[in-house]
Design brief:
The protein has four helices and no strands. By secondary structure, the protein is an all-alpha fold.
């Protein structure tokens, strides 16, 4: 819907009626899409990707730690 709104073939009100949603939702999605597209070309996309990769590694490590703790506690409790 955001892409349709950006294309401008229909007004936001027409899109809202077509998809049975409130016009404010479509306007917000359109704004977010345009802001997101600007971010693609600002040169910081690579930095964001590296940040996400680091966060993913940290989360995977935490998951591994929690699995080990869970298994240890299950053995300790006799389950």
């Amino acid at each position: 819907m955001a892409l349709e709104a950006i294309r401008g073939e229909l007004t936001v009100s027409e899109l809202a009626r077509k998809h049975s949603v409130h016009p404010n939702l479509i306007a917000g999605w359109k704004r977010q899409a345009i802001d997101g597209m600007a971010g693609v070309f600002d040169g910081k996309a690579g930095e964001r990707d590296q940040g996400r990769e680091a966060e993913t590694r940290e989360l995977h490590a935490k998951i591994g730690q929690l699995v080990i703790e869970r298994d240890f506690l299950a053995k300790a409790s006799g389950r």
